Amino acid sequence: MDKVLVVALGGNALARKGGEATASEQLSVVRSTARQLVEIVKAGWHMAIVHGNGPQVGRILMQNEAAAHLTPAMPFDVCGAMSQGMIGYHIQQALGELLKDEGLPQRPVTLVSQVVVEREDPAFGNPTKPIGMFYDKAQADEIAAQTGHTFREDAGRGWRRVVPSPDPVEIVELEQVKALMERGFIPIAAGGGGIPVARNKGGRLDGVDAVIDKDLAACRLADDLKADVLLVLTEVEQAYLDYGTSAQQGIEHISSDELLACQGQGQFAQGSMAPKAEAAFRFVSGHPFRRAVITSLALALEGLQGRRGTQVTD
What we know:
The chain is of the alpha/beta class.
C-alpha cells in the first residue's frame, strides 16, 4: 500500500465543549468529524484511526460507581474496552454512511485493541492521569482505604483518582489491523490509547489500571505499519511557541531535533500539546521519508497537503 496514514482523533472530534453527555450528541459530533475523514479517503489515503476516550471512559466509571450497590463495578481495563466499543460504533456508523453516500468502497471496522505496557515502567510509581468523579478529601481517603486507589487534588476542584500513564510497547492486534487495511477496510484501533495489558510470568496478558496516551499509541501503530504520515488532530490550527503569551508564534515547519529542543525548553504543555509533540518526534526521528502533522480537524486535508498546520520532518 502507498499513502498510508494513521489519524489520531482528539477529544473535539468526539464531543462538543459544553454539549450534553448523550449518545445522540456524540453521534452528531462524530458525523461532522466523519466528513473530514471522507475527504482524506477521497484523496487516496489508506487510513487507520486512533481516538481518545477521556470523557467517555470517565462517565463509564461514574456509572460504575453510582450503580455499585446494584451490580459489581467493572475494572478499569474493562471500562476502556467498553469505551472502545461505544466510540467505535459511532465512528463506524457515521463514517460508513458517508463513505457509502460518496460511492466509496472502504468501510470502517472497530477492533477492540490491547496495548502492552511494561510492568517496570516508571509511570507505575507515579500515577498522574486523573479519571472519574470528584470527591472531597474525606470521601477520597475512605475510598482509598477500601480499594487501594490513589487520589490527588485536582486544580482546586476536588480529589480524583489517578492512574499511571505508561508507554505503549506493543499493539497486540497489529496483524489484524494490517490484514484489514490490506483488504481495503479502515480499522479503528487502539481507541483511548488501547486497553492496557502487561505480560505475567507465564507470558499471558493481564489487564492493568492505567491510561495510555492516545497520541503515543497512534505513533506506535503508525510506526509498526510503516505509515507515511501521522496526522494528529487537535483543537488548534498548529503547535505554538510561547503559547498563550504576547510572543505566541505558530510553528509551520520544524525538524525532529528542533522539536526535541522545544520540548526540553518546556514549550509544550503537559497533558495537551506535549504528548502530541512527543508522538511526532518519535514517529519521524531517524526516518527521512516520514512526516507528522499537527493541526485541527477542520484543516486535516490541508494539513496532509502540507499547506496548514505544523509539519514535522526528520
